[in-house]
Design a protein that fits this description.
Length: 142
C-alpha cells in the first residue's frame, strides 16, 4: 500500500512537474513574445525620436532661413520706405519749383503786358508828335 501511494504521489509529482514545465514553457514563450514586442516598441520609439530630432533640426533650419528672409525683407522694406520718402520729397520739390516758375512766368507776363502797354502809349505819343510835327511842317511850307 505504501508503494502504491508512493507511486501515485510520484506519478502526481511527475504530472505536476510536467504541468509546471508546460507553464514555464508557456511563460517563456509569452515572455519572449513580450520581449520581442518590447524591443519592437523600443525600436519604434528610437525611430520616432530620431525622426522627431531630424524634423526638429529641419524645422530649426527652416525657421532660421525664414528669419533671415524676414530680416532681408524688413531691410528691403525700410530701404524702399526711405527711397519712397526721398522720391516724395523730390516730387514735392519739383512741384514747388514748378509753382515758383509759374509765378515768375506770371510776373514776366505781367511785366510784358505793362511794357507792351507803355510801348503802345509811347507809339501813340510818337504818332501824335509825328502828326503834329508833320502838320507844323506843312503849315510852315504853306
Amino acid at each position: 500500500f505504501f508503494f502504491e501511494e508512493k507511486a501515485e504521489l510520484l506519478e502526481e509529482l511527475k504530472q505536476l512537474s510536467w504541468r509546471e514545465q508546460e507553464r514555464q514553457a508557456d511563460f517563456d514563450k509569452e515572455s519572449d513574445a513580450l520581449q520581442r514586442q518590447l524591443q519592437q516598441l523600443e525600436d519604434s520609439l528610437k525611430a520616432a525620436k530620431k525622426l522627431a530630432a531630424n524634423q526638429t533640426v529641419e524645422l530649426q533650419a527652416q525657421n532660421e532661413a525664414l528669419a533671415l528672409e524676414l530680416q532681408a525683407n524688413r531691410r528691403s522694406t525700410e530701404v524702399l520706405r526711405h527711397e519712397s520718402a526721398a522720391l516724395q520729397e523730390q516730387v514735392a520739390s519739383k512741384h514747388r519749383d514748378a509753382e515758383a516758375l509759374r509765378k515768375q512766368l506770371r510776373e514776366v507776363e505781367d511785366a510784358s503786358l505793362s511794357t507792351e502797354a507803355a510801348l503802345r502809349s509811347d507809339m501813340e505819343k510818337l504818332k501824335l508828335q509825328s502828326a503834329a510835327a508833320g502838320q507844323e511842317l506843312q503849315d510852315a511850307i504853306k
